Amino acid sequence: MPRSYPQAKSRLEAALQALRENHSRVTAPRRAILKLLTHEHGPFTVEEVHRRIKNAGDVVTVYRSLAAMEEIRLVRRCDFGDGAYRYEFNMGEHHHHHIVCRGCRSVKTLDFCVADGLERMARQLGYANVSHALEIFGLCRRCQKKPLEMAGA
Amino acid sequence: MPRSYPQAKSRLEAALQALRENHSRVTAPRRAILKLLTHEHGPFTVEEVHRRIKNAGDVVTVYRSLAAMEEIRLVRRCDFGDGAYRYEFNMGEHHHHHIVCRGCRSVKTLDFCVADGLERMARQLGYANVSHALEIFGLCRRCQKKPLEMAGA
DNA sequence: TATTTAATTGCAACTTACTTGCATTATGAA
DNA sequence: TTCATAATGCAAGTAAGTTGCAATTAAATA
Ligand SMILES: [Mn+2]
Ligand SMILES: [Mn+2]
Ligand SMILES: [Zn+2]
Ligand SMILES: [Zn+2]
């Protein structure tokens, strides 16, 4: 059971407010999606969000809602390279990176970034609008003990 | 016109040899694929490889060939997050990273890595088989001058 | 060189994550 | 309450990539 965030409720309220301020509307599916994202550790795939929520509506709604939330910077999308994007709540907080288990897809957060220097370098080379994607992959302890097929290695 | 690599011919020969040593077979499609990858700067999508090569056979063959070559470490796959994997020749060389233009998908190579420390950290946390993915994104100078739709921003 | 084995290919069908069009519903501003 | 328009649901469409299988062919071996 993932532990819920402290301040989850106020984060939820702030997120709903941000929706309103962006000419978006607060609907039952969006409320449910944001409740999950603010209360539990992600990131989550669209399918996971949809599965875990009552009132999330159609999957298409989850796709569209998360895309809209990304636009207005309520959530971040990340790519673990396994064919499904994942979303996590991030409302203006500093970005971070993950160690992702290739077996169970569990995630450890790395709360700092080593790519600032690279971004600066890219800007010096003339690039605008610079960003980066960084994920660490490995097999977690638990998955190392399981037979390989289960661990997905 | 991309400039061709020095030593391209011997790299190609070495690659074909590596295929043989791995109980793989040297076929016309594979020869053509490796000729492209050793002679021109990548990385390339499967579609690009297929389009630019006579004798590359069916696209499925390109998919399967590149997958096989990745298995035996002749090529590396990278993910620019735009829906199509890309492959570049890399036969035991040190890995590197890229600055990728979000407009034209042109690539600048960064011949060093800043994630070694993170990998070490992951191993200390108990992860095995650690690796990472890192790409820098931006809009290159040329694309900054184009209208936004063209630049894909 | 001829034989044999197993890797590779081509084709068509399939999967999967995600997108789009459109008619209907419902939010929230006026 | 009215009303403009944002969001939704459903169905259909994309697009990258995978898979099954029969036919082909590289290359090991006789
Ligand atoms: Mn995170
Ligand atoms: Mn490269
Ligand atoms: Zn694990
Ligand atoms: Zn560009």
Quick rundown:
The structure is a homodimer of 153-residue chains. The first copy, chain A, has 153 residues and is of the alpha+beta class.
The largest beta-sheet of chain A arranges its strands as 1-3-2
Report the CATH superfamily of the largest domain in chain A.
Winged helix-like DNA-binding domain superfamily/Winged helix DNA-binding domain
Give the CATH architecture of the largest domain in chain A: Orthogonal Bundle
Round the mean pLDDT of chain A to the nearest integer and report it.
Answer: 90
Strand tally of chain A:
6
- Enter the CATH topology name of the largest domain in chain A: Arc Repressor Mutant, subunit A
Helix content of chain A: 40-55%
Outline type of chain A: globular
Task: List ligands, each type once.
Answer: manganese (II) ion, zinc ion
Classified by CATH, the class of the largest domain in chain A is Mainly Alpha
Radius of gyration of chain A: 17 Å
Assess the beta-strand content of chain A as a share of residues: 15-25%
Largest interface: A-B, 35 and 35 residues
Q: Kindly give the count of domains of chain A.
A: 2
Task: Please state the oligomeric state of the protein chains shown.
Answer: homodimer
Poorly predicted regions of chain A are none
Distance between the termini of chain A: 25 Å
The assigned structural class of chain A equals: alpha+beta
Summed up, the helix count of chain A is 7
Q: Main sheet of chain A, how many strands, which sense, barrel?
A: 3 strands, antiparallel
